[in-house]
Amino acid sequence: MANTTRALLGPRPALTLAAGVLVALAAMPIVAIFVLAVMGDGEGTLPHLLETVLPRAVRTTVLLMAGVGLLSATLGVGAAWLVSTCRFPGRRVLEVALVLPLAMPLYITAFAYIEFFDFTGPLQTAIRAVGGYTSVRDYWSPDIRTLPGAVLIMSAALYPYVYLTTRIVFLMQSSGVLNAARTLGRTPLGTFFGVALPLARPAIVAGVTLAMMECLNDIGAVELLGVKTLTFTIFDTWLNRGSLAGAAQISAIMLVIVAALVVTERVARARRRFDTSARNVEPTRRVKLIGLRAWGATAACTLPVFLGFLLPGWILIDFASRRLSDLGSPVLHAALGNSLVLSLATAFVAVGTALLLAYAGRLSASPVAAMLGRIAVLGYAVPGTVLAIGVLVPLAGFDNWLDGQMRQWFGLATGLLLTGSGAAIVYACTVRFLAVSFGTVEAGLGKISPHMDMAARTLGRTMGETLREVHAPLMRKCVATAGLLVFVDTLKELSATVLLRPFNFDTLATLVYQTTVRGAFEDAALPALTIVAAGLVPVILLVGRSESRDLVHGTPETGERGAARA
């Protein structure tokens, strides 16, 4: 029996069991969703949803995801190919600038576009000035609050996922393979479609999958744009229709869609060894473009940056300059303080959990510890609205149980200690962003040779002393990076926060959301600009990693993780 336990849990079973408890807490919201969805059948909500709500929501969601996937792939792959294989004016600047839209949360990009296309916005104002029109009935202007408009906006913000993963593969491809295709009579365009694109297919699928998952997770942009996806339907069913069971049933359907996306991405990643070239090959030499081709390449790479970063950034700065007096607003200060507290708490909990899981995998070296690490990162694939449902159920159950016990034994009413506080938001964000911290911490710990552990133990150091004296100094940067990434992700998070926040409690993200829903776009500019400025920090880190030797000559999965962490 002891040998069996040791084989499963490793030489340090207590550490593995502690990691198991944390992973169980991380997986509990997902389990709670399916339990509530099954129990909710007694209310007769599912047949009603299947008849009236779900068909349209599923159709809209599928069309939106397909459109975003296709347009993101077009923008991302095209830009990655140009900057990786060609030389043209502005290439070095654009190679970095193409990542910047990752700093713009979707709901902020959406509200900037809405104002740009609004009657009082720059576009229609210019049309009236040039044409001498006085009424909107005298001219035509595109309506951005449509499904095609949502596809354009989301693709402009999400294409960097495809750009990052694909660019790495293009940089790794051997010039010998491409030159052989040219020798056999392939044109440059034929070489791209016939050789380079098939070799990059797994990376493209991985990037498109990440973009589609972020599209599925969004709630702020789709509501502002009037596109009723499954995510919005969950929000509407829970809060406006008062059916938590119905929201859980829709969440279960979303999880099935997410699982299909994850399986697709895994299958594509499993084939990367066959689709990428060997390491010790001559990298592709960039072709110098001249004349119209050179300036056409510059324009083609500038367009995504303009759509995803420069245009919304210009609108934000313009609005913020009109509201500088709001810098002293108590509402803004309160939202900023709440955001900082929640983000710091989530970063602390997520990094601490990641350290324990990473050490359990390193010291135990058991199948159970390895499995726990794989389960822990599943939360990143779960949309925030779905996590909000899953978090609320167990926390509300615990609060009600504790309140009953305190009333029975001490005559005290504790109320909703966890559900009615920011603890629920910290819990949900920790589950969602644990993959971010775990991946970073595990990568940093993996660079430390096990021989250093053995040497420290030989010199009489305990496990705790080895951690403090050997590992901590070596892992300081990666732990700080993990904390920073989780901090910024939590600062931008809206889907779970808007559903779980207590009454009269706003973060920067929910303040932007509430203000834009009211149509007061100028009032939302300062908090939105604060979020974007914070979002630039991990993007700059990501750009630094992408320029490093390890990322260029490493494996495609390095870029996938970097994109996911941004």
Describe this structure in words.
The chain is mostly helical and 566 residues long. The chain has a domain at 8-28 and 346-502: MetI-like (MetI-like fold, Orthogonal Bundle). It is 76% helix and 1% strand. It contains 27 helices and 2 strands. The protein has helices at residues 2-9, 13-39, 45-52, 54-85, 91-97, 106-117, 122-131, 147-172, 175-183, 188-199, 201-217, 220-224, 230-240, 244-270, 272-275, 291-322, 330-364, 367-376, 384-410, 423-446, 450-458, 463-492, 497-500, 508-517, 525-546, 549-552, 556-565, and strands spanning 86-87, 287-288. A two-stranded parallel sheet has the order 1-2. Helix 17 crosses helix 20. The relative contact order is 0.14. The model is unreliable at 273-280 and 548-566 (pLDDT under 50).
Features:
566 residues; mainly alpha; MetI-like fold; two-stranded parallel ribbon; 2 strands; disordered C terminus
How is this structure best summarized?
With 566 residues, the protein is mostly helical. The chain has helices at residues 2-9, 13-39, 45-52, 54-85, 91-97, 106-117, 122-131, 147-172, 175-183, 188-199, 201-217, 220-224, 230-240, 244-270, 272-275, 291-322, 330-364, 367-376, 384-410, 423-446, 450-458, 463-492, 497-500, 508-517, 525-546, 549-552, 556-565, and strands at 86-87, 287-288. It is globular.
Helix percentage: over 70%
Percentage beta strand? under 5%
Distance between the termini: 45 Å
CATH topology of the domain at 8-28 and 346-502: MetI-like fold
Major beta sheet, specifics? 2 strands, parallel
